Amino acid sequence: MLLPLRRWRASAVLFALAVWGAPPAARAYPWMIKHDYAACAACHADPSGGGLLTAYGRAQSELLVRMPYGASPEEEPRYAGFLYGLVDLPDWLLATVSYRGAGFSTWMKAPDGSTMTDTRYLQMLLDARGMLKLGAFRVGGALGWGNTILTLPAAVFTNDDQTQMLLAREYWVGLSLVNESVLLRLGRVNLPFGLRNVEHTSWVRDLTQTDINVSQQTGLAVSFQRGPWRTEALAMLGNLRASDTGYRERGFSGYGELKVAPRATVGLSALVARGDSFVQDAAPYLRQAYGAFARWAPVLPVTFMLEGDVFTKNTLGSGTQDFSAVGWLQTDVEPIQGLHVTPSLEILRTPGTSGVATGYWLTLDWFCLPHTELRFDVLYRNYPGQGGRLQSLSGLIQLHTYL
Question: How many domains are there within the chain?
Answer without folding.
Answer: 1
